[in-house]
Amino acid sequence: MTAPDDKPGHLQKPSVDLPTPEPDSPRLQRKPYKFATLCATVENPDMKDQYGSSSVPIYQTATFKGMGGDFDYTRSGNPTRSHLEHHLAKISSAEHAFVVSSGMAALDVITRLLKPGDEVVAGDDLYGGTNRLLTYLKEHGGVIVHHVDTTDPEIVKQHIKAGKTAMVLLESPTNPLLKIADLAKISADVKERAPAAIVVVDNTMMSPYLQRPLEHGADIVYDSATKYLSGHHDLMAGVISCNSDELAKKMAHVINSVGNALSPFDSFLLLRGTKTLAVRMDRQQTSAMAVAEMLQSLGFTVHYPGLKNHPRREVHERIANGPGAVLSFTTGDKAMSERIVGATRLWGISVSFGCVNSLISMPCAMSHASIDPAVRAERGLPEDLIRLCVGIEDPADLLDDLRHALLEAGAITLEQGVDGHHYIRASVQREGRTISRAVEKLAFNEQERPKKDQLEWFVSAPGKVILFGEHAVVHGVTALAASVDLRCYGLTGSRYDNKVSVNFVDLGNFYQEWDIAELPWDAASHISPGTDHPDELDAKLLDAISTRALTASSFHDNPTGRNAALTFLYLYMSLCAAPGSSSQGGPPAFHFSARASLPVGAGLGSSASFSTCAASSILLATKRISVPPLPAPSRPPQAEGEDDPGHVHVSHAGRRAIPQSTAGEVNKWAFVAEKVLHGNPSGVDNSVAVFGGALAYTRPGFTRKSGMEPIQGFKSLRFLLSNTKVPRNTKALVAGVGVKKQNEPELVNGILDSIQAISDEARRILADPELPREQQVEGIGKLIVENHAFLRELGVSHPALEAIKSMTASFGLQTKLTGAGGGGCAVTLIPDNFSEEKLKELIADLVKNGFEAYVTSVGGSGLGVLSPYDPAHHGLASTSSETEGSEESEDEHAEPLRSSFERMPVDEFTRWAEGRGRWLFV
Ligand SMILES: N[C@@H](CCSC[C@H](N)C(=O)O)C(=O)O
């Protein structure tokens, strides 16, 4: 008799060649059954029914009579369950399968293979319940858990340690962001690095129909059978499958010991559900594709492996047979998402997925609510994410219901186009409700012909890269920074309702408006023209804005948008006299929109370029600065330093430019804005954003001469910027270097001296007009390699940065981290003669590995202004008398830019902005 722990019901090896019939004869060969046939055909030759029942009977009994038989007690084994387990093993390409009371019970059984001290590598986008169980094991079971980006096999590999890693737990696609992990590659890497470790895959999202991870090297696969396997949301169950007899034996022991095996009735239901798995899934998947395409065509960010642009789609297609029927998308606004979810009728608001009925949910509030909000934010799980689980209803009804919900929630609007009505994505929301385009048009007076002083101001400013000396700069070493041609853009337009408003499309579509009279003017001190802002920020004003103007609860979910609004209001209220206090007619009513073509928070100076846009826009709107009219191209340059219309300066790209005095004024206020955003900035970022080019900066308080000096003669260089997308903690990284310096002063001081030598040499190379270009590029390349090595020694690199470094090195290129390190971005120097083909190949490799890559040239122009905008004039910003007449007549057709500015997809933005006309630059 088998020991009770190893009941045969759990350990029977299915006859894998059945039910596929044997070939009848060499001439009349039968093909193996396809998956759908296997699903529908429940047959276990070892357990023939005594009456030949077509459906497996329910053995609704707790005990079995006699001794020495196959079954004694249903906790240990039950014939209905055995039939089910045999069937599931067959369709999962497994030797063994077990069914337990839920998906989480399955994971519980599997994690009981762990012991204290074991390390688990799991994903950073994963089901909330899985995260909860792993956290429990971490806190109570002595297990060490690493949550890493499993979309990058290299990152996973770096966490696998022989003798320590006991389990690698994967989801692909992940729940809820549908990210793809290369199960085959990771399984192979685990076997190579830590042969004793087991690879476990949660296959719930795919089901065995679409993906069978055991075929790709996984050791154990589990499914929440509550989902696709059962398909009807009328039972809870979990399935565990594996090929190893040893693992199976251990897990059978656990299941029998804890008593969480599936009940006979639920086993019956699950067996019944499984028969229709393929046919349900086919239908659900086809409809999911239609839903994903509709949402994407409306401009939402959609996560679905069936979409052409889904990251690592090719990996998914290699390991799976279809994209499945779960997708998720963001709206940019949590309240908006809540309204959409609430407005659907056919889509049921419910956790879970895999049901024949379509479901809609907000993971952060539902399936993933058990993950701490701070952890969710750190791992990039958007609060406004909506997850859709597509069912078998008629797809036309599903699309229609969803479209109605989007419309009702104000996420899309129905607009009349030349060729009929179209749904388009609405970009403007107010807290708690959406304003209709008609009302919005009234407020912004779009139909009215813009008068000269009401025309829009369109500005832009570059981000920056630190070329040399990051971290060391904190300890008095000179850093070199240069502008990049990824920019932030700002647009102001008059309002006619005594309100001021902001919209930050790329910061979660943050929109807010204020009645000017109701702003906390009593706390503001007007800084009159010609006077500088004091060194210290006005704490009273900051507090008054925070507590009286930025109180809406929705701000808490969007701290970046909130801080940008705080910065805008601080500048606005400092630069404008309070209403009624001035003969000028009080603070101007206008709308300010900002967009960013550079990644926010990746160390590329996005906040400084935003600060520059906000400062220049408010200074222009309040008429505290003005830009010279565009001179006729043939006019000769004026004398150097003359603040006069015409060619006072030539920008870094050789373009006609904004006077230095105007740029200086913008820079002062951009620095104030930077202080609001960062507390104690060095001023480097805003100086680069305003003046462009490159500069050398040495911090005061050390032995070297401090200050900021432009690097004259800097010639633009081409760099590849790679964003690891790994969030970093600059403060902690800077502090870490400080601690290292304290603990190992000799080593760190030596490194700092070497970095100073690198900065000095780079500065010499960059400014030397006689050095041939190839030598300049070669010299900079060498310094890049050296500087990076020192930064790594300081402990501020990151595996993702190192991965980028080795990928670029294989193309013969030099790379270093830029900024704080610990994630963020890397810069790779692209020599002038580097082939475009190879560059494309490299970018494709980087993207394939989960990075973002931007080709950028550094050292270009600073602040740019295109205004007042007048498309009828091809953007000529002329206010001079010679062109005034024609402007008046052609102005008739001027259309405000705002609508395109706020709707333009970010990847098309720069080209669109440049095409608006002739820009003036610093
Ligand atoms: N309250 C439950 C939520 C279950 S979510 C179920 C499913 N895996 C999904 O992703 O929707 C819990 O806290 O576990």
TrEMBL record:
GO terms for cellular component: cytoplasm. It comes from the Eukaryota. Its main location: cytoplasm. Its EC number is 2.7.1.36, 4.4.1.13. GO terms for biological process: 'de novo' L-methionine biosynthetic process; isopentenyl diphosphate biosynthetic process, mevalonate pathway; sterol biosynthetic process; transsulfuration. PROSITE patterns: CYS_MET_METAB_PP (PS00868), GHMP_KINASES_ATP (PS00627). This is Cystathionine beta-lyase. It comes from Schizopora paradoxa.
